[in-house]
Amino acid sequence: MPDRSEDSAISFGPFRLFPKSRLLEKEGSPLHVGGRALDILIFLAERPGEVIDKRELVKRIWADVNVDEGSLRFHVAALRKALGDTGKSARYVVNVPGRGYCFVASFAQATAPAAQPTVDILPPRSLPAPLSKMVGREEIVEKISNGLSLHRFMTVVGPGGIGKTAVAVTVGHRRSADFGGRVFFVDFGPLRDASHVATTIASALGLTISAEDPTPALLTFLKTGPALLIFDSCEHVLDALAPVVERIVRDVPQLRVLATSRESFRSEGERIFRLFPLDCPPEREGLGVDEVLAYPAAQLFVERIAQSSGPFQLSAEEAPLVASICRRLDGIALAIELAAGRVNAYGIAGTASLLDSRFSLQWRGRRTAVPRHQTLAAALDWSYDLLPPAESATLRRLSVFTGPFAPEAAAAVASGDGLSASETLEAIDSLVTKSLISPSGSRLLRYRLLDTTRTYAQGKLAELGETKQFARRHAEHFRDFFQRAEADSSTPLPEWLGIYGAELDNVRAALDWAFAPDGDVALGIALTAAAVTMWVRLSLFAECRERARTALTALGDAGDERIRMQLLSALGWSLMYGEGRAREARPILETTLELADRLDDKDFRLRALWGLCIDQFNNGQFGKARALADRFANAAANSPDRTDVMLGDRLMAVALHYLGDQNEARACIDRVNASLHVLAEKPKIFPLDLRISTQYFRARILWLQGLADQAQALAARNIEEGRANGHALTFCSVLGQATCPIAFWAGDFEAAERHGAELVEHTERHAIRLWGLWARAFNAAVLARRGDIATGLPLLREELNRAGDARFLPRFLPLLGELAACFLEADQIDRGLDVIEDALARCNDRQELWYQPELIRIEGELMLRSPRHAGDAEARFREAIDIAGRQGARFWELRCATSLARFMIGAGRSTEALPALENVCAAFAEGLEIADMRIARDLIAQLQS
Asked: 104, 120, 327, 657: least buried by Cβ within 10 Å?
């Protein structure tokens, strides 16, 4: 990709836009603009003076994501604000009513800036190590590397074992600096279920995505900068992968895709590069050493002999034999490497004679007519027959693994039937030296079979009738492995995922076999139950849900009750955390609780109670949630696990917070906080980080209690901890439960806007739908609070409507209050009163009382502007103050007292206003610089003067 020195700038006003570098400068300094807003600016600036239809803009910026014009207006408003283009006469971006938007600035296409000092380039992401020496492919690598500058999607096509992956990896390393290190290697070889192609890409990019369709989140990530995606071993997933590739290539202009496959994608925009066999010495007499070594196939053969056996000098007598070996192996790189690996044991002449014994004249005569994979299969067949029995048995048995596997797993699955675990590991070491097994590039020691080798070995396993036996061992191993994983709560999450999450492909393969007609359904059911923790910690709630449903269907009505309880718990949790207000979650969790009580299973009793309590939160039944929190606390009281007691206090703190009892909520959350230092394990029943989640609820409670400085400091630490933790759902809660609301309540709308934009980007990247709905509505409220009511109010209404049933989640209640406040600012009093009436009815019906004082205060402000209700405003302010005082919510009390004081001043009762406001302010020992305190102090000063 071109670096910035080759990126022509578009200059307008004090700004310079570098489209290729995705950089906007103001007076020479970088100016932060959200990713979507920058996409809009680049698109408009590319077509200056032209009115771009809104639908065209939406399609270009969001591709096929279902986005309405409200989102476009929000990001255009953010762009105009960043450009200082908020006056009545737009200078840069104009809205043409009924048509679209137009870039109207006068600008000049600047010359490319002077070259900048070189910077360190990040290493390629997930890219295998480069080969120490690439033999015979230098010209090919150069052509493909240059071709990526001209073509956005290239596929290297050729038979198995010909070296497609090696070429692609070499190209990736060569072009890494051009893409700023953003080169991602995605190996589809381990993937059996083609429906997971997008999830596999997301995993290679380091994304955790829980949505049914991860493609929109992938697009969001890829649009953040130039990148090269290398898709390897695509032939078995072409039907599912082709439309994904077409879409990301079409919608991400700065992206390049390099794929390897045995056949082309036959996709739009694909440029095919066929990789042919290495050139071999011709078949003629008298070939000398120099003539033989002039051919890449012979060079590779000799190079690999030297690597495996030490320094090697080809003799004149051996040169013709090497030429013959290369020709018989048809120039297939892998086959040549396998043959070279045998020279140390059998010599070149012995290797050549063995080769002849495996390839008859018939094979040799038909070689040009037989598919090239058969040639490679023959080479593998030959190599396999050279193995001693222990090694050939080990190779066959290891073919049941999908992707990399640990030595312990190999020993567990492949040993037995005459092979001890130590003999199996010795055989693996020998197979590694013979290039039949490759060490994986991961930090922990793992191995993998080359795809062609695994396919070949699977055939041998089937020929001997051993497939079912070792597929069962494979599934049994991972059943036992994940039963241990569930009990491993002391390992930190990143390490836990490195150990257990890495086995996702093997779990999928084992389950696919178990539920197949020739599988073992009972084993599949047990493995599903054991693997639930992995899916939950990977936030793969959709996959967890479908796997649990499959297992429950297979279990039937007469199955084991304990297994049923485990699967129902998994299904209930995946519905609750994946879909929010899922109607079917509650009966499933209630059945789980009944089974736990009948079986006297304390662990699953707590899981079911936790899930039911969260379900009541999601559905706004806070009185019922508190009752369930009580039941949880009572059940946890006798638990030997101290974290269960902490979880009980946390659950009760959340219930009390929403019920409006901030003092008792503080006592509960402080007990959790005081015990965090002894927390050595990750709670079994809690999918978020307990330390981090405790602090964001503490920050909320502290804020409402009037302890603003403590709340802000805690929120600042919490967001850094959330970023470092790396868990997608936890970080959503950090931003949405504390960081965004506290910045908003503090009147720091710049910080609120920044954190809100970060939350939107985060939810789009990880496809976390519910928090994404909230974040877009929150950002609209921020926009309105910053003075742009004309844009913010309709956008807020649209986002709340788009949220649908999700707006009944507790997090949406303050946004309803802000909607009413926006109607107040827009002088639409009756609409504001209608919103408040509905919101207060919701509070009373659901006992969702924590925000009630603020809603009543806003209602009072609306009443003051209504001739029919003005006489009731004072009573509403006083009622709000009284409720806030009883709740221990000094922040609401301050706001309500300020509104009452303003009313009194307007009514000519200043002498009454001063003591009322002074008494409330005197209770504040901190938070003196938040917006509400500054307003109150100004009023007091006005009254005193």
From this structure: 120
The answer to whether residues 193 and 512 touch, using CB atoms and an 8 Å cutoff, is yes
Measured distance CA(426)–CA(389) in Å, rounded = 13
Longest CA pairwise span in the chain (Å): 117
Count of Cβ atoms closer than 10 Å to residue 594 Cβ: 14
- By residue count, the chain amounts to 945
The CA distance from 718 to 692, in Å, is 6
Contact yes or no for 711/703 (Cβ under 8 A): yes
Q: Which two tokens stand for residue 99?
A: 């048509």
DSSP string for residues in 381-443:
HHHHHTS-HHHHHHHHHHTT--S-B-HHHHHHHH-BTTB-HHHHHHHHHHHHHTTSEEE-SSS
Using CA atoms, how far residue 510 sits from 235, 482, 525, in Å, is: 22, 12, 11
- CA–CA dist 415, 402 (Å, integer): 18
Residues 756-803: tens digit of each pLDDT: 999 999 988 877 888 999 999 999 999 999 999 999 999 999 999 999
CB 480 within 8 A of CB 519: no
> Considering Cα of 326, then 329, then 332, then 334, what sign does the dihedral take?
negative
Q: Return the ∠ at Cα 586 (arms to 584 and 588), rounded to 5°.
A: 70
Give residue 153's pLDDT band: very low, low, confident or very high (50, 70, 90). very high
Closest listed residue to residue 393, CA positions, set 436, 479, 457 = 457
- 203-250, pLDDT tens digit by residue? 888 777 666 778 888 888 898 889 999 999 888 888 899 999 999 999
For residue 15, list its beta bridge partners: 12, 26
Distance, in Å, from the CA atom of 17 to the CA atom of 37, rounded to the nearest integer, reads 13
pLDDT surpassing 50 at residue 418: yes
Q: Minimum mean pLDDT among 22-26, 294-298, 654-658: which range?
A: 22-26
